[in-house]
């Protein structure tokens, strides 16, 4: 880790390489041209999945496949395993990492919404030591996060919710890329407290507070979902127009809320 | 600046100097002259370039050769045992699982990963497992039959 951070700090334009399934395509398109790549996937401390004192701890270099098939993830937060198994295709899941995905912060990626709904924290090691940041403070914009140039994500820490919590991830898939045109992650605790986060809808994944507060205070799935994706800027591309995405956000919010009710 | 890498490909060790920007698929095709692995879309969508790195299916167009340093790689050339085809290769032949054949190496390598994890997949599990591989001839039905053929044959071999 120390060596990796040192290289990232040494002045040349360097990027952290995880599984490479976002960065390598970006390099091919000349969207990015670092002088140095630092492959962190063989750093032992970034691997492993464990349960520590009521927290699920996922090393940043775990692949989507490793998370999708982890017994610890299945037994504690199975919607994360299901979400991981819906990323891309087998080959992508075999190489792509959770740390790489959230560092890249693609607005249509699944992990950011999953981690927002799970109320996860992200542990980052950099030049000034280690810090832990709530997922909600981590994503800051279109392909943007709070990460500094020499930062490496080391862990994702997710509090294991109280018994009886229900959670789901509902995804409308772009059939070629298998990214989310719209993805809705929802977690409802026995107290009624609900967290709802979207992928694919806006510039970056976000928690939808209007849906959350309606659902948390007892509104029906239909009623709470009708408030989805209001007051946010909505993406529009040749797969889905702004209106269609907004419509899908409400449909997928309803499906997710029905699932966790 | 070239970087020295050591890889084992289809049971044979290679030590080569590569440019850091070299993609694994180019290393296999252009340096080692193993041209059975195809480049289709070059954007990690089509799966034609699928190989196994340390036993798992990956798209070799989306991996740098330097990332494979120290790994064991299997390509389509490494599946047959001499003149004896791998059950998947036999299945694709018997079930007409290929038309133009361009996607076939990748299809077979992904199917081999699938059967290693799930020796008796259902039809829907096969279709789901091959989501990362495109056949532009749209010959998917026979590809699924070819995988079923291989699963049955490999299952019989195990139980025999």
From TrEMBL, chain B:
Signal peptide: none
Pfam families recorded: Fer2, Fer2_2
InterPro entries reported in the protein's UniProt record: 2Fe-2S-bd, 2Fe-2S-bd_dom_sf, 2Fe-2S_ferredoxin-like_sf, 2Fe-2S_ferredoxin-type, Beta-grasp_dom_sf, Diverse_Oxidoreductases
Keywords for the protein's UniProt record, in alphabetical order: 2Fe-2S, Iron, Iron-sulfur, Metal-binding, Oxidoreductase
PROSITE patterns to which the protein is assigned, alphabetical: 2FE2S_FER_2
Domain (2Fe-2S ferredoxin-type) ranges: 3-79
Protein's UniProt name: (2Fe-2S)-binding protein
Annotated organism of origin: Flectobacillus longus
